[in-house]
Every structure is written in structure tokens, then in C-alpha cells.
Design goal:
Number of strands: 20
Radius of gyration: 31 Å
Shape: globular
CATH superfamily of the largest domain: UvrC, RNAse H endonuclease domain
Number of domains: 5
CATH architecture of the largest domain: 2-Layer Sandwich
Length: 648
């Protein structure tokens, strides 16, 4: 691959260049591009990434963006909007279209360009893990995969993993206990008593027999169910012929349990044990959904819906010849999801899709997996049933999303109308920004303030902030509110509009809290109309809240079924939740002194817990002598002296 920056980077502090000069410079750059496969990247005047795309022929693909009237109805205004921002481009030449596809989606996941179809980087798919051990255990697992262990999955949900673990416990009695528990038990636990574990911790089963059960469980997860049944039946008959009737009864019970599991699954079995992912796509109302269902070992494990960010109706991939139609949007969304989803995980050998996939994408997936990946979009028999179910689930998930977004937008609109929120000219309701503050403490201890943010018709958890409140009298909520508002908005008032200002500031409190907020905003020169207090109503009952204003407007009461009040309550409750969880964590740290103990070399979580339990808290640990500390299990005399010096 060869990188080539094709135009000098724009200086973000400089004035934007003339439109004609920029366009001519871009056209000159495009004329020099090679007619080779590669990836291109567009940047704006502030050197921010706009879009990443791939091409079989870089010159032809990139030139198509600058040779058409993008303001016309044919291609939609979103492309024209993006093209009008481009001041420079970069390209990377590769050898094949498959390489271009892999590089494109690596860059998309890393750079998150606003004009690409973006799916959230969901690394949370759970696995069933079979640990490498003389007596391997089964467990639910998330995270990076290690070579020494065996993994099955991924599964679409936590429920699917846990159901599989319970099933394997019932069929093969594999252990699920932690290694520390396994090493220190001398008597079998309750799971052994209820026939969900063979008791390897107490030597109730030999390593050889346990290994056989592990092998059978592995075959079951791999889908070799019929072969497993035949083997168990042969072993049962062999045991009977040897007059080993107790062992034959064990095999008989396993066969009965396995048959009972497989019977309700009979409609799901395809006749082969190949793992498969089923993918369906639907685009409607400016939103899109890709539904991913998973089949592992012949068993349908459920599905999960994925929604790309941004407005899909404005897809900007104009195609090799410069044409795009509405029918192509579904395919673009589906292929974008597949490329981004499998870029860092191994795809199964079979993909069943609602639309055909391009040959380069399938080739890239095969290269990524190190084996052949087959994509089928017109399946038959049971696979057709699975695809139909995935398509139906996709439509239902998208309809539910559109209904929820419509409801949330209605709430935002109702609140803006009730409070007469004045927004910037040309701004829409999706840009309405609300910040809400709450104070939390326990009798003045561990005071914390929270700030939560509502924007784009939803809570923006990545923008939440907590503030440790110090230097005030414990329990003085007014002083705490004054401190947090001053810290939050001093820089905002000095930035002269460079930082995004809220359109509304909600204060969890009545007239007193609002008066404090009014004083702070007056000192900072901020608009008092932004401040609204949420005062608890008569009897502090939910739904009877009243809204108090800082600019002199009379307070108002909204009916309990008001959409505006529902949104206010949602934001206020989120601020309260965020504040109280932070306060509890801070209080626990103060009371246990865990932060002090954590800083002492040699005192890990287990020793810290033992010390706190033995002496009743950090004060007891600090008051103990070196001899008393050394009497604790796991604390040597040298460590006790280190501990004593650190706490005094």
C-alpha cells in the first residue's frame, strides 16, 4: 500500500480559501490520481475527516464527486453538502479491491467520519468459555480471546450463554465454580447434590471420565448431536453386556436428557452443523436497521438489532460510475455493517443475507477468516425460515425505534413550547441542549454534584460530569450548588461562544436553589432565562412537580400526563441517579480507607479485605500495632512494618 497526501493540509486558524480556488486545486489533484484501486479520504477546512471511501479506479471514483450537480434531486443535498466542505483529500493505493475494502473499514472504525454509515463498535458479544485445565470449567466470558482456552460463540445475548451453560450442566455435569473454590473444597457443593456437577473438586470423578464428558460437551456445542447420541447408545449397550448396569443407567439418563433437549429443537436443525449468521436489513424513515441472528452447532441462539448513526437517506457512496439509487441504500447499509462488524472478529463459514453481497466483500471476509466464507441470499428449507424470521425481526425493531424516536421528539417539542426556549436561528429541536444539576450527600458526608446532558432527543452519557464539592459546610446544598455552577460555567462565560452553550439549565430544587443559580449567572453575565428549577410538589409526590424560573416568570404546574413534564422528570431522575451513585462510591472509599490501603505495596484486594474485616475499618487498621498487623493471615512482619509506617 502507498499513502499519498494529495493536497497541503489546511491551516485551521487561517481564513477559508476562496471556493473557486479550492475547487480548482481539488480538480487538479484529482486529475493526477492513478487509475488504480485504493482508499480516499476527504477533509474540511479545519482538517477534520469528512468521509472515507474505496475505489477500483481512484481517479474515476473521486472525479465523480466533482463533476455533478449535487444540489439536484437526483443525488440528494447531503452529498452536495459534504462536497462543499472538502478542501483537501488523501489517497492510499492498494493492490486489490478486497484490500481497499479492509483498509476502508479499518479507517472508518478508527476515524468515525460523519458522512459514512457508522455502526457502533460493539465488542460486547459474550462467549461461552471452556478453560484449559485438568478439570475444565464452563463460564460466561467477554473480552479478548486467549489461545490456551476454547471459546464457543459469539452469542447474541447473555441469556443465550447462560442457557447453554445450564444445559451443559444438566447433560454433562461440567463444573462452573471459580478456581479458588475448586482448589479449596473437600466436600462437593449443592450442584453435585442436584446432579448439575460431577464433583471433580472432591474427587468424585476421575480426570479420564471428566475429560470424556468435556469431549461430549464440545461435540454438542460443535453441532455433532446425532453422532453423540449414537456413541452414547453404543456405550450404554456395551455397559449392559458387561453387566455394568449402574454405568449403563448413567448413559441412559444422558441419552434421555439429550433427546429431550433435541426434540424441541428438531424444527431448527438443518442437517449440517455449520455455524451461520443470518443478516437482514431494512431502511425506512431516514433510519436503518440490520438484524443479526446467530446459529451455532445447528441451534438458533437468537438475534440482535443494530442501528447505524446518522441519516441513512443521504448515503454518499456514489458508485464507480457515479450513480446511486434508493434500491442501493439497503445494500450499502448491509455491506457497511458486515465489513465493520467482521473487521476484527472471525466470521462463520456461512452468511445468510436478505440481499446479495458483492464478490470483493465475500473475498475479503474469506481472507480475514483464513478459510472460505460462503454468502447465500436465496436460501431454502430451514435456512429460508431463519431468514424470514430475521427479516420480520428487523422490521419490528426498526418500527419500534421510529416510534420511540417519534415519542422522544414529541417530548422535546412539548418542553420547548412550554418553556418558550429560544434557540439559535436555523437550529432544530435535535440541537436543543439541556444540562441538569443535582447535589447528593449523606448527612453532609461525601458531597458530590452531578451534571447530565440531554441533546439530540436523548441523554448523552459520554458528556456527564461529576464534581467533588469541597471547602463548604457539610449539608449546605446552596453552597454546593453555587460551587458546581461556578466551576461549570466560568470558562463557558469567558469563551465567547467557542464552547457549546446549553439552551436550558435544570436545577433539581426550588426557589432557594434557583436563587443561587440566578446569582451565579448574573455574576457571569449569562442569560437568566436558561435557568429552570424543578420543585417538588405537594407531599413531594411524583407528577406534582412545579417549574420555577430565575427570570421572574411565575412558576407553572404541568398535568401529570404532560409530555414536557415526563421529559423533565426523566432528565431530573437521571441527574439524581448519577449523583447518588458517585456519592456512594466516594462515601465507601472514605469510610473504608481503601484508597489509602491501595497505595501500599503488597496490599492487594484480598489482604485489604481481610484487614478491614479484622479491624473493623481503616481507623482500626491505623490503630493496630505492628504485632497485631503481623498476626493477620498473609501479613508478614516486614509488610506489617511497611503498613504501619504508611498509616502513621
Amino acid at each position: 500500500m502507498t499513502d499519498r497526501p494529495d493536497a497541503p493540509a489546511a491551516d485551521p486558524t487561517a481564513d477559508p480559501p476562496a471556493t473557486d480556488a479550492v475547487r480548482q486545486a481539488l480538480l487538479d489533484t484529482v486529475a493526477q490520481l492513478p487509475m488504480l484501486p485504493g482508499v480516499y479520504r476527504y477533509f474540511d477546512a479545519e482538517d477534520r475527516i469528512l468521509y472515507v471511501g474505496k475505489a477500483i479506479n481512484l481517479r474515476r471514483r473521486v472525479s465523480s464527486y466533482f463533476q455533478r450537480d449535487h444540489d439536484g434531486a437526483r443525488l440528494g443535498t447531503r452529498i452536495g453538502h459534504m462536497v462543499s466542505k472538502i478542501v483537501r483529500l488523501e489517497t492510499t493505493v492498494v493492490r486489490t479491491e478486497a484490500e481497499a475494502l479492509l483498509l476502508e473499514n479499518n479507517l472508518i472504525k478508527r476515524l468515525q467520519p460523519p458522512y459514512n454509515i457508522l455502526f457502533r463498535d460493539d465488542k460486547s458479544y459474550p462467549y461461552l468459555k471452556l478453560e484449559s485445565h485438568d478439570f475444565p470449567r464452563l463460564l460466561y466470558y467477554r473480552g479478548g480471546l486467549e489461545r490456551q482456552h476454547r471459546y464457543f460463540g459469539p452469542y447474541p445475548s447473555v441469556w443465550a450463554v447462560k442457557e447453554s451453560i445450564q444445559l451443559l450442566q444438566r447433560l454433562f455435569k461440567l463444573r462452573t465454580c471459580d478456581e479458588a473454590v475448586f482448589r479449596n473444597r473437600t466436600r462437593p457443593c449443592l450442584l453435585y447434590q442436584i446432579h448439575r456437577c460431577s464433583g471433580p473438586c472432591a474427587k468424585r470423578i476421575s480426570a479420564e471420565d471428566y475429560a470424556l464428558d468435556v469431549g461430549r460437551a464440545t461435540r454438542f456445542l460443535d453441532g455433532d448431536t446425532q453422532g453423540l447420541l449414537d456413541e452414547l447408545q453404543q456405550q450404554m449397550h456395551a455397559a449392559s453386556e458387561r453387566w455394568a448396569f449402574e454405568q449403563a443407567a448413567v448413559y441412559r439418563d444422558q441419552i434421555a436428557a439429550l433427546s429431550g433437549v433435541l426434540q424441541p429443537q428438531a424444527m431448527e436443525m438443518t442437517g449440517d452443523s455449520r455455524d451461520a449468521d443470518i443478516l437482514a436489513v431494512k431502511v425506512q424513515g431516514g433510519r436503518a436497521c440490520v438484524n443479526l441472528a446467530m446459529v451455532r452447532g445447528g441451534r438458533h441462539l437468537g438475534d440482535r438489532a443494530h442501528f447505524p448513526s446518522g441519516v441513512v437517506a443521504g448515503v454518499v457512496d456514489v458508485g464507480e460510475a457515479g450513480d446511486v439509487g434508493e434500491a442501493d441504500i439497503d445494500t450499502q447499509v448491509l455491506e457497511a455493517f458486515i465489513a465493520q462488524h467482521y473487521i476484527d472478529r472471525v466470521p462463520p463459514s456461512l452468511l445468510i443475507t436478505s440481499l446479495p453481497l458483492s464478490a470483493p466483500l465475500v473475498l475479503a471476509l474469506s481472507s480475514q477468516a483464513g478459510r472460505k466464507v460462503v454468502a447465500v441470499h436465496q436460501p431454502r428449507e430451514q435456512r429460508r425460515v431463519w431468514l424470514d424470521l430475521a427479516i420480520q425481526g428487523c422490521a419490528l425493531s426498526l418500527a419500534r425505534l421510529l416510534a420511540e424516536e417519534g415519542s422522544q421528539q414529541a417530548r422535546t417539542r412539548a418542553l420547548a413550547e412550554v418553556l418558550d426556549v429560544q434557540m439559535a436561528q436555523g437550529a432544530d429541536l435535535a440541537q436543543l441542549r439541556i444540562e441538569c444539576f443535582d447535589i447528593s450527600h449523606t448527612a453532609g458526608e461525601a458531597t458530590q454534584a452531578s451534571c447530565v446532558v440531554f441533546e439530540g432527543h436523548r441523554m448523552q452519557s459520554a458528556q456527564y460530569r461529576r464534581f467533588n464539592i469541597e471547602g463548604i459546610t457539610g449539608g449546605d446544598d446552596y453552597a454546593a450548588m453555587r460551587q458546581v455552577l461556578t466551576r461549570r460555567y466560568t470558562k463557558l462565560a469567558e469563551s465567547a461562544g467557542a464552547q457549546r452553550r446549553p439552551d436550558l439549565v435544570l436545577i433539581d430544587g426550588g426557589r432557594g436553589q434557583v436563587s443561587v443559580a440566578r446569582e451565579v449567572f448574573a455574576e457571569l453575565g449569562l442569560d437568566l432565562a436558561m435557568i429552570v428549577g424543578v420543585e417538588k410538589g405537594e407531599g413531594r409526590k411524583v407528577g406534582l412537580e412545579e417549574l420555577v424560573f430565575a427570570d421572574g416568570r411565575p412558576k407553572i404546574s404541568l398535568p401529570p400526563d404532560s409530555a414536557a413534564l415526563m421529559l423533565v422528570a426523566q432528565i431530573r431522575d437521571e441527574a439524581h441517579r448519577f449523583a447518588i451513585t458517585g456519592m456512594r462510591a466516594k462515601r465507601a472509599s472514605v469510610r473504608t480507607g481503601s484508597s489509602k490501603l491501595e497505595d501500599i505495596p503488597g496490599i492487594g484486594p484480598r489482604r485489604r479485605a481481610i484487614l478491614l474485616q479484622r479491624f473493623g475499618g481503616i481507623k482500626g487498621v491505623a490503630g493496630a500495632s505492628v504485632e497485631e498487623l503481623a498476626s493477620v493471615e498473609g501479613i508478614s512482619t516486614q509488610l506489617a512494618e511497611t503498613l504501619y509506617r504508611a498509616l502513621h
